[in-house]
Amino acid sequence: MPLDSEKKPTLLLVDDDAIIADSLEYVLSEEYEIERASDRATSFKLMSDMSDSPTLALVDLGLPPNTHRPDEGLAVIRKISQMHPSTRVLVLSGQDNKKHLFQAKEDGAVDFISKPCDIAEIKVRLKRQIIAGGGADAGHDDIEGIVGSSEEIELLRMQIRQLADSPYPVLIEGESGSGKEVAARNLHRCSSRKQEPFMTLNCAAFNGELLESQLFGHVKGAFTGATDTKNGFFEEAGSGTLLLDEVADLPLDLQAKLLRVLENGEYYRLGETQPRHSSARVLAATNKDIFEAIKTNQFREDLYHRLSVLTLRVPSLKERNGDKNELLFYFMQQVADEVATFQLDEDALRLWNDYTFPGNVRELRNIIIRLSAKYPGQTIKPEVLKREMSGLQRHNGASSSEDWLHSALQDSGFQLDQLLKAVEKEVIDLAMREHDGNVSKAAEMLGINRTTLYGRMDRLEVKD
User: Fold this and answer.
1) pLDDT tens-digit profile of 396-414?
2) Whole-number Cα distances in Å, 240 to 140, 191, 234, 245
């Protein structure tokens, strides 16, 4: 008899397709105790006879007698939620209509896997729900905001858990808009420092003394305008985590001072001769080629080696096959409390999955926000979606701006302020992509100063 701790988790599998059910039972039986049902009545009886709640349930929406409708599968999900509220329910179905998807979530499902699906992905998704439900490895899954089931994103989550409690710096690399700050926040959340502050300083946002003051603080009178003594980010972070974003833009003189902090924790406030000590963990993020910066003497090689003791690469969205739908649902849920969510029709959903999203997750999120604001509760067709996909317009030769504006004016619920805000955000996004996230160069392209650009990015929620 195995010990209780050695018992395999129970998986309730509800699917009327015998070939699929047999295949799943065959490949999953090593890790799970499988209980099978092929229709609603059988599953209800099976659940009533269970002495313990199943750990997981994998439910097909299209069950007999009408396999082309989701009613039976949704009824099973509701019953599981009533009888076994601790069970994590995943939907495995070819019925990926967004309305059905939302209903399944409302009835208690925690994940949706479209048929056909790779068995390796199913295993990963099941394992994730065991962790989320408090099973194996519980307590190590504080990860938030990193959405998707691709191998690349699963690897990122695994690396975050592995590196979270290390005391060493981590260099986070990735394209603009891919989610480097989200990865950094999760390194903090998954660490023993999570009760301490998490602070972010954008190294491209300030110049000279102002940036040094932001990092290390200053005393009253240290420079013109220093009317009060001020703590720097290292001091404010305490024993927490400090993310240095766009670290490749750090001036050379400050690179030397940062190196000193990394080597022995020592730094000086501006205008002060007494050394201070930092116990913060340092994370650094960049979308630039640091090796190229080292070659051109714009970045210190010794600082690079200190920062990159551990490295983390955030994949671009074009590398994350299959994650676009999960991200769509995730961000739609985030705005659902404020506006009625839209739906993509079948052709628009196909367009969504074909689009490359050159601005990565940031662009995807912005598109969802704009669609939610402009078309609440409506079904979106491809021609409407195309207008929100700036990259698609650039690469596929979209119609003239006059045609685009004329078409936009015909939309019900048109509001000029919303359009101007959307256009402003798109222009800033484009400028940032053109210069790989370099704020100074993007501001120069836009004909505004860097401080103004940061203000607009903050107002429009344009983030890396």
Assistant:
1) 444 444 555 655 666 656 6
2) 18, 10, 9, 16
